[in-house]
Design a protein that fits this description.
This protein has a seven-stranded mixed β-sheet. It has one domain (about 5-240): Vaccinia Virus protein VP39 (Rossmann fold, 3-Layer(aba) Sandwich). It has helices at about 5-15, 25-40, 55-60, 75-85, 120-130, 145-155, 165-170, 180-190, 215-225, and strands at about 45-50, 70-75, 90-95, 105-110, 130-140, 190-200, 235-240. Helix 4 (about 75-85) links the parallel strand 2 and strand 3 (about 90-95). Helix content is about 35%, strand content about 20%. The chain is built from nine helices and seven strands, in the order ααβαβαββαβαααβαβ. By secondary structure, the protein is of the alpha/beta class. GO terms for molecular function: methyltransferase activity. This is Class I SAM-dependent methyltransferase. It comes from Kineococcus mangrovi. Its EC number is 2.1.1.-.
């Protein structure tokens, strides 16, 4: 098992497969909210590829909407979980950098991926060949400029907006993007943005929201629709290959 796969297995064991992580319900509710938008992008004729399984929220919601749905997962334990929980889907157990679909897909979902990888521009160039003519890629990442990071700096809890928190380290984040930086990396890889969105009006870190009920988290997601994307906890772009 190579070093990168070992790191993915560590993240799987310490986070995704760990029922003692108390704030996962917040992230899961946010992903469920994002799926309302993502579902509008999936056509029954589409071939969809999703990078990573995570908690399986997206796959559970979108997997049955497409003609073909493939999950690319580098952690063997999570790849096995996909096979067990979603036997009708295709599973590619591989690192993103080492795999490519037999045929280009109509929709590529890179949800909370680019903050994890060693070389995001190189990966984006590799992914460009996965997308069929007229197809799209959706990218979602945590937002450097989010309200809760701004508050953390204002309170002296973190030195800069892009300081990685202990939670970032736990889940394997290597960077935190702002919207211009994300679009710059994707443009270098040959993608043009066709839509920008922000998700989750998050003013406090997860650790201070553990006593909130699901209705509060859903409300904060709905409130994000009224805010600039640059202030939300997560930023999303829908992009198409150039040329």
């Amino acid at each position: 098992m190579n070093t990168r796969v070992q790191e993915l297995e560590r993240i799987a064991a310490q986070y995704h497969l760990n029922d003692d992580v108390v704030d996962k319900f917040i992230e899961d509710l946010c992903q469920e909210y994002c799926c309302d938008w993502l579902a509008t992008l999936v056509d029954p004729t589409h071939d969809v590829v999703e990078l990573g399984y995570g908690e399986g929220v997206t796959v559970s919601r979108l997997g049955r909407l497409a003609r073909r749905y493939t999950v690319v997962e580098g952690a063997p334990t999570l790849a096995q979980r996909v096979r067990e929980e979603h036997p009708g889907l295709e599973v590619a157990e591989a690192l993103f950098e080492d795999w490519a679909p037999a045929q280009p897909c109509d929709l590529l979902l890179a949800l909370h991926v680019f903050e994890h990888v060693d070389d995001p521009v190189s990966l984006a160039r590799h992914l460009r060949s996965w997308v069929a003519p007229g197809g799209e890629m959706v990218v979602i990442v945590p937002n450097r400029d989010s309200l809760h990071r701004r508050l953390g700096v204002a309170m002296g809890l973190q030195p800069t907006l892009d300081t990685l928190s202990p939670r970032d380290v736990l889940v394997g984040h290597q960077r935190v993007y702002d919207l211009p930086g994300l679009e710059r990396d994707l443009a270098q890889a040959g993608f043009a943005t066709v839509e920008r969105r922000g998700f989750f009006a998050k003013a406090l870190p997860n650790a201070l929201m553990l006593d909130l009920g699901p209705e509060h988290i859903r409300g904060l997601n709905a409130l994000a629709e009224e805010l600039p994307a640059s202030l939300c906890a997560n930023i999303a772009v829908r992009v198409r290959p150039i040329g």
